[in-house]
Amino acid sequence: DAWLLRNQQIAIFQPKLQTSLKDKAQLEEDLHKALESNSFDVFYQAKVDSKGQIVGAEALARWFHPTRGLISPADFIPIAEETGLIIELGKIVLTKVCKQLQLWFEKGIKIPVAVNLSARQLINQNLQDDILNLLHQHRLPNELLELEVTETLLLENLDAALPILNAFHRNGIKVSIDDFGTGYSSLAYLKSLPLNTLKIDKSFIKELPNNENDKAIVEAIAYIAKALGLSTIAEGVETKAQLNFLQSLNVCCFQGFYFYKPLPVEAFEDVMNQQITHEYID
Ligand code: C2E
Ligand code: MG
Ligand code: MG
Ligand code: MG
């Protein structure tokens, strides 16, 4: 813990996915077509509290490719970023989520949904207006939409991002730092930015509770978050043993296959309905 606090830095590298150039050019062309033909959908993955009750969800983009089948966002988001198509794709995801939130809200289901933002979206000065307009058009309380940004993305674009983050904060839209611990993070920024939650990256969760280094890192993150008044959520929770360790720390919420996978909207609704009959959601 002390090491992290003294150096104010955590830098951990993850191997990037390799796609061949030819593959990439083809995917790029397909991506253009997919945006025109509405081939994207949004899956929802539940976030649960320590009792296993659903407290929110994350929206995850899915691309149904005509010949390749379902393509992972890990493969198409980077291409969408490079080509600028992410702006359009981002709008599609935000719009779909707001439509869904409205349907749920009208049925009395008030479940906050988090949308992932990419760098290009975050430096676009229209972002705050676009989002606030979407919420207004769908007659939604702002609190129902949350946003997730990665720390590297945020720090590399801080000048542009700061006024946008401030606007979200003023308007009651919560922002989480996604994949926390994997970027070049300066802990100093955490106290000065209007953030709500740290999402502990799944690479630190994977080998819990056996890996001593990961245990120390996760403990340190939970400690820092508490000290700075931020909440924490662990992503990629797959086993009971991981959950037990995390529950012994100041970790509020969990997300992972141990609880729920990202699900198509109908399947996610089934899961929520089961909880509603157990008198959970107010
Ligand atoms: P992320 O935001 O960190 O999302 C978590 C990823 O971990 C998701 O992968 C999710 O399916 C996966 N995951 C959840 N639980 C578990 C688990 O228990 N074990 C394991 N091994 N994995 C788990 P997915 O859906 O493939 O998305 C990958 C990344 O793509 C996301 O990482 C996010 O950065 C990006 N992404 C997804 N949708 C969007 C979007 O609409 N816009 C933007 N800009 N990025 C998106
Ligand atoms: Mg995320
Ligand atoms: Mg993440
Ligand atoms: Mg990730």
UniProtKB/TrEMBL annotation:
Span of domain EAL: 24-276
Name of the protein this chain belongs to: cyclic-guanylate-specific phosphodiesterase
Entire-sequence positions represented here: 403 to 684 of 684
